[in-house]
Amino acid sequence: MSELIHLHPLVFTLQDVVTGCGFLAGIVVTGKAVMEQEDGKWWMYGACPGALAGSGATPNEAFIDFRNRYKEALFDIAEECKGFVQFHTAVKDFYTEDKQESARWDEALEILRRNEQSVTDPFKSMPRKRSGEYELRIQVTRLEKLDKSKLKPTNNIQDSLAKAA
Question: Using CA atoms, how far apart are residues 32 and 46, in angstroms rounded to an integer?
């Protein structure tokens, strides 16, 4: 008998450019989150990085709200920092795992693996990422110090949201 899937384990990748006091930073994050419907709204809760949540009428709206809150957090960190080194450290500190949400993510992944046939859209049609296909991490690069030959359009990364598998 299949279990009802109400908690969806997700993997995301986001790329941002943030201006701070005397620096221009590029941030690429690959993280994990859980999404669920509560009281008629969809909620996306960060497991890594934790301390983030977004909501919306649809799963896509919840992702967009989550993404915007993440970007706001980066902007707030940049505003509080006096230079790149402090910003780099603060962003790395921000990228911490929320143990409770991470445990919910692990549980949701186990249920999903046992009941793949019970997944409904839009989650059913999402791309899948297995654990060997991504690495949870955050990368912070000082862009204005890069050799100009390293700045290429191929460095751009589309925001992505995938179902963990």
Answer: 6
pLDDT value of residue 164: 87
Give the pLDDT confidence of 70-87 residue by residue, as tens digits. 999 999 999 999 999 999
Residue 139 in any domain: the answer is yes
Question: 162 in a domain, yes or no?
Answer: no
Task: Give the tens place of pLDDT for each residue, 142-163.
Answer: 999 888 888 889 888 889 999 8
- Asked whether residue 26 is assigned to any structural domain, the reply reads yes
Q: Of 10, 105, 126, whose CA–CA distance to 66 is shortest?
A: 10
Count how many residues are written for the chain. Answer: 165
Is residue 110 over pLDDT 90? yes
Kindly give the residue spans of alpha helices, DSSP state H, lying in 15-121.
Answer: 59-80, 84-94, 99-114
CA distance 73 to 83: 17
d(CA 108, CA 68): 24
pTM score: 0.92
Print the domain residue range for 109: 7-154
Count of domains for the chain? 1
